[in-house]
Amino acid sequence: MTTILLSMVILTWFAEIDSQKCVYRDPCICRFDHSAGSINFGVEGGVIDLHRISDDGNPLFLDPRDSGEQIYEYSPCRAYPCPTVKDSSLCLTTKNTKQVLDLGDLKDMTFNTTANKTTEKLHTSMNYKAIGSNITSIVHLICGETNEFRFEKMTSGYNYEFTLYSPCVCVDGCLAPGISAGSIIIILFFCSLLLYFGIGCLYKKVVSGATGQEIVPNDKFWFSLPGLVKDGYIFFISPCLGDRAEYRVYDRL
């Protein structure tokens, strides 16, 4: 009975972890969707978006080996073809033999997420397959302050592992800046002001037959406003003016 309960707990744990996936949106975007009953890692609704670091179709990252013989080229968001593979995203070029090897195709890419129960953190990687071969590549995404691409290791002659460091692999790290609440308020204020004067002037012109400055709605208030502002300013700074003439027009409190 104890074994059955333990198995159920383990299966439930893995089911909860599995629900915390960064769901594929396109080859450079995934979103951590909220799932009922899932463990909260603080990333629900968050997005990983690499479009801000790769948009021109050229290989964004180069990782030459110490010997200079091998160069790994990576373009995460747009295919940068190896000579014989138009949809390649990862390429290996060996200089001395001039051999070019496709390590992963843009159309055969998936996001994979694993969880660390101890640290309560998620790790996301981009997994690629090369069409027409057994080659697979894993690009581990590590949140960092600068963009850097590294080859890590090769296993079994077919499996390659890389690490991509970038602010854009942080959750919500490279989202396009949105409009702030203050900006929205300012936009609404000036739109309201424009409507106020536009409709008010049209109404007084058509209905009242007003001309000149009388066409402005509440014209007496608006044309006296600069003088009121000036008087208020002088009154505000009057303690600093001493016995200047402008100050003497007000009664001391």
TrEMBL record:
Q: How does it sit in the membrane?
A: Single-pass type I membrane protein; Single-pass membrane protein
Q: Which GO terms describe its biological process?
A: autophagy; protein transport
Q: Which Gene3D superfamilies match?
A: Mannose-6-phosphate receptor binding domain (2.70.130.10)
Cellular component, GO annotation: endosome membrane; Golgi membrane; mitochondrial membrane; phagophore assembly site membrane; trans-Golgi network
The subcellular location is: Cytoplasmic vesicle membrane; Golgi apparatus membrane; Mitochondrion membrane; Preautophagosomal structure membrane
Question: Signal peptide span per the entry?
Answer: 1-19
Looking at the keywords, is Transmembrane helix present? yes
Domain of life where this protein originates: Eukaryota
Q: Which family does it belong to?
A: Belongs to the ATG27 family.
Q: Any idea what this protein is called?
A: Autophagy-related protein 27
